[in-house]
Every structure is written in structure tokens, then in C-alpha cells.
Design goal:
By secondary structure, the protein is an alpha+beta fold.
Amino acid sequence: MVISFTRKEEEDMKTVVTRMRLLGWLVLVMVAACSAPAAKEPAEASPGHRVETITLTGMRGAVDISTSVADVGDVPNHEVAQRVYSYTVSSADAADFDGATTTNFAQGDSINGAGTHHGYAVWKLKSGDTVTIRFDGRHQALAHDGAEAPYEGELHFTGGTGKYRHIQGHAKYRGHTSAAGGSWTTTVTIEY
């Protein structure tokens, strides 16, 4: 038995098949959206779990622990740098963080002193615990007159030890640097 269709009937069937495929995709997307976990809201403190909003300030001197700079050579004054430096953290909100010292491992990519930076920092807290942070940001060039140059970015707590082994949180930071050193400040909600 041979079934034949007119051109109009074939076009109508193609339209129906296309609509069925679209409907199938729509149903698939809806099912996926409904079964996806809901966005995590800040948790309330439960036994053994804390949520705190703290303000932190970091200060550093002019001397880095180590610095390595390379000229890229593609355009004038394009440099990449690897720096290791330290900050002293202060906080009126969180006793463990007040007086912490950091070791920052940063990479920078700059043209005429302005560009991007990213890296990791290990903070040794007064309690002896540590927290690890990842950061990414942008910085301006130091002025020739010694004025401070601004920088900003975002930091993410990625882990720690002791009571901070499950620390989470992220925030934006702002700071400035000069030939004499630098400082930054942030307010962050942490969970641990």
C-alpha cells in the first residue's frame, strides 16, 4: 500500500512536527527549571553554623615579599607581574579577623600601570585558623606626583581550617595604593 500526500498536506505535517518538537523542548526546559534547586538564601544560624556580616580593612607597607615583572613586548609599557605581599587585617566586628596577617599571591597585567589583577590570599587568624581567598580586580596607575591610585575587585572565601573550614562568602573590595603602601576595605557576609 502506497500513501501519497499533496504538497499542502506535506507542508502541514512538517509544521505539526516542528510545533511538536518546540513543545517537547519547552516541556523539557520547564521540567528542568522546576527540578533545579532553588537559589540558596542566606542561612540562619543553626547549631554549629554561623552567619556574620563583618567589615574588614587591610593595610600593607611599601615592601613586597617578592616581585617578578616581565615586559610583554606587544605594546609599549605592557607588563605582567607576579607579586607576593602581606597585609595586616583589622576588624571591629570579628575578633578572629582583627590582627590577622595575609600572604597574597597576585598576578597583574598592566599597560602603563593600569590593568587587572587576580590571585589568592591565605589569612592567618589570631585563633591560629586560616582562611583562603580568591580575588579578581582592576587597578589604576600610580600617579607621578605620589598620589594614591585606586583599585577595586571582588573576593571569594574558598575555604579554611578549624572552625572556618567550610567558610563561604564573597564581596566587593575597594582600596588604594601608593609608593608608601596601600589599604583596602570590604563588608562581607560569611557563613561558616
